[in-house]
Amino acid sequence: MTTPAELLARCPFPPPGSPVTCAVSGGADSLALLVLAAEAGCDVTAVHVDHGLRPGSGAEADRVAEVAARVGAAFRAEVVAVRAGPNLEARSRRARYAVLPADVLTGHTADDQAETVLLNLLRGAGLDGLAGYDPRRRPLRGLRRRETQALCSALGLHPLQDPSNDDPRFRRNRVRHELLPLLDAIAERDVAAVLSRQAAVLRSDAELLEELALAVDPGDAAALAAAPAALAHRAVRRWLRTGDERHPPDAATVARVLAVARGEAVACEVGGGREVRRSRQKMVLGGTRGYVADVPSEPEHQHLFESPDLGEVVVDAATLQARVAELGAAITLDYAERAPLLIGVLKGAATFMTDLARTIALPLEIDFMAVSSYGNATRTSGVVRIVKDLDIDLTGRDVILVEDIVDSGLTLSYLRKTLAARGANSLEVCALLVREGLQKTDEELRYVGFRIPPKFVVGYGLDVAEKYRNLPYVCVFEGNA
Fold first, then answer.
1. Segment 377-382 long-range contacts (CB within 8 Å, at least 24 positions apart)
2. What CATH class is the domain 310-477?
3. Which of 5, 341, 416, 433 has most Cβ atoms within 10 angstroms of its Cβ?
């Protein structure tokens, strides 16, 4: 029979009497965490977080409270609101950790570590990703999932079964239930144990490089350009990474920043509405450029012509042109020595793509396709049909799909799937506007001009019933269509 004392010898808990908070969902791993923390003599507080995602989830806190009382731990219940939709797993994680203390202990095991390594590998992560999760605050990292289940069984505990853990829509579940068993069969060994040990080895290497990179000042262009590549990359990633980001900036973003440091570009976008600019050998990180947090309460510009349907200006003409130039510069850097094919979505993207093309200092080609999902209305119907198809063959081409605005994302999702099936070498998206809060799909956008509130807008190519495309700015449409 599995006993707490047997497992505790492999779990590095703080010294007896230390106050600890344990995140306890009610599953086998978290219940084992709670039991073993109490067995280690810690002053334990168990916290259950209800995400409200399934009926009866509120009652699960009561079952965790019973186990906490049994082992002499304090208990606290938290409730967060997480709506169904794209990125559910990531949004639930953010909401959960927002109500948990920074030093909370979690019940991640060696199996979770192996899954994390594989997921990071599939994502294209580097050394840090292959080192898996940070082992701090995870005292069960030396245990296997089967051992936590055996402990609960031996103690007569009945772990809660979360049906989302078997949902194949979540990539981690497919790694757990499909990929790892297949790797075990191919390797004829326990691959999770191998990956967990490998992650520990790689983490020590990653931590050494991170310590050495602290000597590189990312704000000093000359120092950054002269630093060894491995250290310069780390310095830039550390500089750009914000507290709520789970993944560091990608390699292309880091490369753009280093090109600015070397003097090959004056500025570049780095995602999240931010940019890095070089000024007098100093690297300056901008705050929220390219984002429009809200529509101004009063119009700041005279409209091109009088109309009672035209409301506040969201993005003025000068700001539009400046941002288009920045997007063109970023594309020029990213597609160096390649000839991208710009595909504009008619009719809305025609104005934007024409201006964008003139700012890209590369040989390029353009083509257009037309789809319909709005008709004459101000809300997308969700039904997409191709009205005009492409003239150019996409086989082997580096394609940039140019969109005027992304709302629900349904049209974009349809176009990406359609174009991806035509043999392109690469396919990225450049969207002038994203209306926040309306997305029904999880679409990755490489280049974004502005993120705006969910109000219907016209101008700079956007229309209502073919009107207002010629406005040189973007403003709110307040009429009826």
1. 377/481, 378/456, 378/464, 378/477, 378/481, 380/407, 380/408, 380/410, 380/411, 382/408, 382/410
2. alpha beta
3. 433
Active site positions, annotated? 407
Residues in contact with 40: Cβ distance below 8 Å, sequence separation at least 6, in sequence order: 8, 11, 13, 14, 16
CA–CA separation, 66 vs 75, rounded Å?
9
Q: Which residue has the tokens 């699960």?
A: 60
Domain limits of the chain?
4-198, 214-285, 310-477
Q: What is the pLDDT of residues 22-65, one digit of tens each?
A: 999 999 999 999 999 999 999 999 999 988 777 777 788 999 99
Nearest by Cα to 266 from 280, 254, 253, 249 = 280
C-beta separation of 210 from 241 below 8 A: no
Degrees, nearest 5: CA angle 85-89-94: 105
Burial class (CB in 10 A: 0-12, 13-18, 19+), 447: buried
The CATH number for 4-198, chosen from 3.40.50.620, 3.40.190.10, 2.30.110.20, 2.60.40.10, is 3.40.50.620
Q: How far apart are CA 161 and CA 144, in angstroms?
A: 18
Q: How confident is the model over 314-360, as pLDDT tens digits?
A: 888 888 888 898 889 889 888 888 899 999 988 889 999 999 999 99
d(CA 310, CA 325): 26
Q: Which residue type, as a one-letter code, is found at position 326? A: E
Tokens of 166: 């078997």
Is 0.70 surpassed by the pTM of this model?
A: no
Instruction: Please indicate whether the domains covering 4-198 and 310-477 agree at the CATH topology level.
Output: yes
Per this entry, what is the length of the chain? Answer: 481
Query: Contact 7/31 with Cβ under 8 angstroms?
Result: no
The rounded distance, in Å, linking the Cα atoms of 14 and 21 is 11
Angle at CA of residue 147, ends 180 and 173, nearest 5°: 30
Q: Counting Cβ atoms within 10 Å, is residue 43 exposed (0-12), middle (13-18) or buried (19+)?
A: middle
**Bond before 347 cis per omega within 30 degrees:** yes
| Residue 68: partners with Cβ closer than 8 Å, 6 or more residues away | 24, 34, 44, 46, 74, 75
